[in-house]
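Kindly go through one protein, given below as sequence and tokens. The question is how this chain folds according to its tokens.

***
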Amino acid sequence: MTTKTPSAPVRVAVHGEPLPFMTEAIEAGGASLVGLDGEPEVLVLDHGNPKRELLAVLDATPSIRWVQLPSAGIEAYAHALAAHPEKVWTSAKGAYAKPVAEHALALSLALLRHLPERARARSWGPATGTSLHGMRALVIGAGGVGLEILRLLKVFDMEVDVVRRTRASVPGARSTTTPAHLAELLPEADVVVVAAALTADTSKLIGAPELALMKPTAVLVNIARGGLVDTDAVVSALRSGTIAGAALDVTDPEPLPDGHPLWDEPHALITPHAADTLEMIRPLLGERFSENLRRYSAGRELEGLVDAAAGY
């Protein structure tokens, strides 16, 4: 999708308080910052903006043609997107790939080196752990994060299979297939990394049947959305030894409640949706938005266009 080249600086409104990083991005993109009463063509959101007010803002501001969302996932904005399909919507998909992929790698290494158990230990114990080098990985999702995870894992001389919505080949992957063939790949994987978008089709993509197919020495990592994985099934799989470990940066429910069994599970590692902190991602969001403003002004296709039908 391309946009009509405007003859004057693009008018941009910020939903909420315009923080310095965002005003700098607007300036770097050659646009001008206006209020909602200044007939903005573009609306940009920062993390923490009240999502419930977005629909009211769009209803009251018909001049807005394009909405830039701050996150890769769009499920929190689905109501507004459905109400205004005539607008151009872009997300941050792919913009945060590097920090999120780094976190996925860190969690994978931590599980294989038994760091959750070591962190809880109160006495010296036997040396245990497994090297990531030469292992087999399964990456579920081939967006920006999934592709960056693939790149990092290949450094460890790993064979990496990729599951994605289509069978379009992913360069560097040993194989590329769809979720319909997930059961064929799970028994072969040493590390399973979930990096897909959460949609109606992918909800609880990893549940008890899928966990039962994994090796008892395999580990599960989720850095995408908590709803992709059945939390209760993970607890059962860890307790029974069906899998060797699970590292979750996202959970369902989220936040994970105090007293939840996963907090006490010795083979679980939980991080509080910390793969991409605000300190990491605000500069990346600013870069994405300023680039998109330049593209918008030049009539070029925007990065991170939302596919409402696909759900991301």
About this structure: The two ends are 15 Å apart (CA to CA). The first helix runs from residue 20 to 28. The chain has two domains: 10-94+278-298, 97-270. The mean pLDDT is 96.
